Amino acid sequence: MANVNAGILGTGRAYPEGVLTNADLEQMVDTSDEWITSRTGIKQRHKAAEGEYTSMFAVRAARQAIERAKIDPLEIDLLICATVTPDQVLPSTGCIIQTELGAHKAAAFDLAAACSGFLFGLTLANTMIKTGQARYALVIGAELLTRYVDYTDRSTCVIFGDGAGAAVLGPVEGERGILATRIRSDGRYTEQLFAPGGGTRMGLTPESFAAGAHFYKMRGNELFKVAVRSMADVAREVLEETGYKADDVKLFIPHQANQRITDAVANNLKVDSQIVYSNIAMHGNTSSASIPIALDECVEMGRVHDGDLVLLASFGGGVTWGAVLMRW
Ligand code: UT7
Questions:
Q1: What percent of the chain has pLDDT over 90?
Q2: Are 177 and 326 a contacting pair, CB within 8 Å?
Q3: Ligand 1: centre distance to CA 265 (Å)
Q4: Rounded mean pLDDT of 136-161?
Q5: What's the 157 CA to ligand 1 centre distance in angstroms?
Q6: C-beta 84 within 6 A of ligand 1
Q7: Atom 21 (ligand 1): residue with closest C-alpha?
Q8: Ligand 1 atom closest to Cα of residue 255
Q9: Is 95 a catalytic residue?
Q10: How far is CA 280 from the centre of its chain?
Q11: Looking at residue 168, what is its pLDDT?
């Protein structure tokens, strides 16, 4: 399998039916539709009901991606579920999804890189396909973030939503597929977005649960600046490596963290606003699911065509960031 590229053969997405609008949030915390819309671009986000869990949406998104890729689940060699909100601690949500799909020949596992998880997963899948260790890979980003949201904290509860997106990758011919990837992290910024409780360091006791130790804490303002700088830098790196310019890109999908972050990154990269995709108004920030959901929407809407140069960039807690450049 010399010089083979890995390309996306099929995509899918799923989210809970439940929706939390800005008007709903106005009833819950001291906020307003005007503030949320102008500061984030978000109008609504999906929210799972009691009894729903992460793998339910991951499986639905994955089934759609597999069907569109026209492969049999038994052909999948690698199954990565990027998530920071797994079904349970053990086994991995990847293994749960594998069983539901009947993808029994895949090596399945979870990948915790927060909002960059999907691009970290694409990077691993690309390497394994290029080196002949896998033929088909399923990469999923799936999150039920609303389970870790403190609905008394207006600085976080207006941002996050639930959902899942998936992509099947396989070998593609010619100059198509993934051309360059970059993934990075810097643990020195850990406390800008973190959930202290619920792990081995601070187990959930009735007291720590009551104190909300499992909820996400975010220093949004500090994160904002790092996010813009990191996403723009890493996107520039994959363009420079492949000799392309921002002008060559036909579709740019940044992680949907905040409309103002998307606008600032696009501005920094000097890409035409027409090629930047945004769905944050409808979904909020769904962490690792945001890019694959957006990609699937673009495929469905005909916003991506054969031969188009597609740029993806992400940033998330950890902190983690990355970019992927591919020819569709
Ligand atoms: O997914 C990847 C990781 N996450 C991110 O990258 C998120 C990055 N950060 C952000 O998206 C933004 O920082 C936020 C949307 C979280 C916050 O927006 P901001 O413009 O940075 O606001 P701020 O934190 O600087 O707060 C400005 C004011 C404060 O009031 P004072 O101190 O100026 O009186 C906040 O208390 O806005 C207030 N505020 C709100 N007001 C109404 C914060 N949240 C709300 C709210 N409604 N929901």
A1: 98
A2: yes
A3: 18
A4: 97
A5: 11
A6: no
A7: 221
A8: 1
A9: no
A10: 12
A11: 98
The mean pLDDT value of the chain amounts to 97
Pick the CATH number of 179-327 from 1.25.40.10, 3.30.450.40, 3.40.47.10, 3.30.980.40: 3.40.47.10
Instruction: Give the pLDDT confidence score for residue 46 in this predicted structure.
Output: 98
Angle at 50 between CA 319 and CA 90, to 5 degrees: 55
pLDDT of residue 2 exceeding 70: no
Q: What kind of fold does domain 5-174 have according to CATH?
A: Peroxisomal Thiolase; Chain A, domain 1 (3.40.47)
**CA distances in angstroms from 92 to 55, 70, 110, 274, 304, listed in the order given:** 10, 26, 6, 39, 33
Going by their DSSP bridges, the two strands 193-194 and 44-46 should be labelled as: unpaired
Q: Answer whether 289's CB lies under 8 Å from 282's CB.
A: no
Distance 155 CA to ligand 1 centre (A): 5
Mean pLDDT in residue range 48-71: 98
What's the 152 CA to ligand 1 centre distance in angstroms? 14
- Best of 35, 185, 224, 286 for a ligand 1 pocket test (most atoms within 8 Å of beta carbon): 224
Ligand 1 atom 26, closest CA: 221
